[in-house]
Amino acid sequence: MNRNAIVAWLFVPQIACALLAVGTVLIALLGARYWSAEDTIIKSVLPVMGNMLALPQIVLLFAMVSIFLYNSYQIMLIPVWWFAIIMLAGSGIILGIFFARAFRKSHRLYGRRPRE
């Protein structure tokens, strides 16, 4: 494979991830349009949704930098799979925190419903 094909294979997934993030945010905004702002947590969750879809882009960027550094200076950064695992663990913790906050807020707003 020549250099242009490699660069294309590295940039096309990043563009696809960016378009997917924009689409997800637009769909969430359209859904939030029909809810009252006080009842939802969309204002705090929306930035997290957009950033979670950017995580594959960050991993691809690290892979590109690692490839270019190794080809140019024979410097090896940490392995890409270590970086991916670190990113996934960090994002899992952040998502867990947001899930717990959303669960507490919905439980506080709606409370327990009596059984019929």
Please describe what this structure looks like.
This protein has 116 residues and is mainly α. The chain has helices spanning 3-32, 42-52, 55-73, 80-110. It has one domain (3-110). The protein has four helices and no strands. Helix 1 (3-32) runs antiparallel to helix 2 (42-52), helix 1 runs antiparallel to helix 3 and helix 3 (55-73) packs antiparallel against helix 4. The model has no long low-confidence stretch (mean pLDDT 81).
Beta-strand proportion:
under 5%
| Overall outline | elongated
Tell me the span between the first and last alpha carbons: 66 Å
Mean pLDDT: 81
Percent range of helical residues: over 70%
Task: Using the CA coordinates, give the radius of gyration.
Answer: 20 Å
Say how many strands there are.
0
The largest sheet, given as strand count, sense and whether it forms a barrel, is: none
Q: Which structural class do the helices and strands define?
A: mainly alpha
Number of helices: 4
Q: What series of H and E elements makes up the topology? A: HHHH
Question: Which stretches of 5+ consecutive residues score pLDDT under 50?
Answer: none
Q: Give the count of structural domains.
A: 1
Supply the key terms.
single chain; 116 residues; mainly alpha; 4 helices; 78% helix
How would you summarize this macromolecular structure in one to three sentences?
With 116 residues, this protein is mostly helical. It has helices spanning 3-32, 42-52, 55-73, 80-110. Helix 3 runs antiparallel to helix 4 (80-110).
